[in-house]
Every structure is written in structure tokens, then in C-alpha cells.
Specification:
The chain is of the alpha+beta class. The chain has helices spanning about 35-45, 50-60, and strands spanning about 5-10, 30, 45-50.
Length: about 60
């Protein structure tokens, strides 16, 4: 299954559909590329994180 790397937009709490009762952490994680997450990206609740961009930010800190 395809995955995408996402993180919640500032101030948002997004539920995980794979683990009911849990929320996505504030840091970027890989999730399945399902319609639920893709809709959240379109509405602005989730931000898609590029792996290359994330690595550059981590090394520059």
C-alpha cells in the first residue's frame, strides 16, 4: 500500500483511522494514502511533508 508523510496543520488534532481513539502526533509520520487523509490535506487540516525537505530541516537545526 502506498504511504504519504503528513503532519497536522498548526492547532489541528486529526484522528488516526488505523488506531481508533488516537490522534496523529505533531511531528511528521507516514500514513496510508487513503481518502480520509487525502481529504484532510485538501481541506487544510493536514500538511503533506516532502521527505527531502524534512531531512534538510532536521540537518539545519
Amino acid at each position: 500500500m502506498n504511504t504519504i508523510r503528513v503532519k497536522p496543520a498548526k492547532g489541528m488534532r486529526i484522528r488516526r483511522i488505523e488506531k481508533p481513539g488516537e490522534f496523529l502526533p505533531e511531528t511528521a509520520i507516514d500514513v496510508p494514502a487513503r481518502q480520509y487523509y487525502l481529504r484532510r490535506i485538501r481541506e487544510g487540516s493536514l500538511e503533506r511533508v516532502n521527505l527531502k525537505t524534512a531531512k534538510k530541516k532536521e540537518t539545519s537545526k
